[in-house]
Amino acid sequence: MKKYLIFTDLDGTLLDHENYSYGNNKKTITRIINNENDVIFNTSKTFSESINLLKKLNLTNMPFSTENGALLYFPKNRFKKIKNSSDYDKYWKIRIAKLSSKNWYQFLLKKQKKFKLLIAQDLHSKILKKYTNLDNTSKMLNREASQIILWEDNLVNLKKFKNELKSEKQGILIQGSRFMQVSSVCNKRIAKKLISHVYDHQFYGTYFKNTIALGDSKNDIDMLNSASYSCLIKNPSGSFPKLHSNKKNIIKSSKFAPDGWSQVLYKLNNTLENKIF
């Protein structure tokens, strides 16, 4: 019987938005992978942040995407060498976003002369803790293909900044729950599509083409719209990401993360002929 690919955001979806706890979700994940389905991180987090959580949740043999789809990683112990991938420790790495974090840092330094923006990399750890509740922010700042910023200017200038970002560097601005990410073109939909393609190529016929995606915020919308089953986690604002008006198979949680993650999957499982667990 075919199995499911389950793509998930982390902060505010699988993890508590404030303290990053995964609650009882490890039990649900164990049930999912024991039934040979795959749980795939599709996150704004960095490689350093993701790898630690993958170990804790026993997901180290799963591929994952970081920095909002800028980079994809496939474990070598399970995947054959992939076209256009590079050797990266225990993984095959595919780089989607062209420019490096260093390139973006230099670009942002120039733009600070014109716009009121703060580069997270330059902020004191106490300030970063205020926004993130993290005692150690080094892993968050260990970025390869992006930079994260806090915007302190007006909306008119934000539009100008986006236009200059696009015209000068072919870059994009991705709105997260805490920061804005500046990078070359990438998003979670592209990452999901490419990861699914690799699965189809290397494990043809093993997994359903009908994918499942879970998210809670704006940077998850592209991924959620492209999934066959879209699971929306209630966020602190009380609202849900707005998907296409004709989107079908939308499941919403009544609980916040982390409990909402398992809740929507159990709801979905009850409607599926081919069960997740």
Short description:
The chain has 277 residues and is an alpha/beta fold. It is 33% helix and 22% strand.
Describe the structure.
The protein is α/β, with parallel strands linked by helices and 277 residues long. It has 2 domains: 5-96 and 187-271, 3-Layer(aba) Sandwich (Rossmann fold); 101-184, 2-Layer Sandwich (Threonyl-tRNA Synthetase, Chain A, domain 2), CATH 3.30.980.20. The protein contains 9 helices and 13 strands. It has helices spanning 25-34, 47-56, 101-111, 125-132, 138-141, 155-169, 188-202, 221-226, 259-271; strands at residues 5-8, 38-42, 64-66, 71-75, 86-88, 91-95, 117-119, 146-151, 171-175, 180-184, 212-215, 229-234, 250-256. The strands form 2 sheets. Strands 5-6-4-3-2-1-11-12-13 form a 9-stranded mixed beta sheet, sandwiched between helices. Strands 7-8-10-9 form a 4-stranded antiparallel beta sheet, covered by helices on one side. A hairpin with a 2-residue loop joins strand 5 and strand 6 (91-95). The longest helix is centred in the middle third of the chain and has 15 residues, at 155-169. The radius of gyration is 18 Å and the shape is globular. The protein starts with a strand and ends in a 6-residue tail after the last helix. The model has no long low-confidence stretch (mean pLDDT 96).
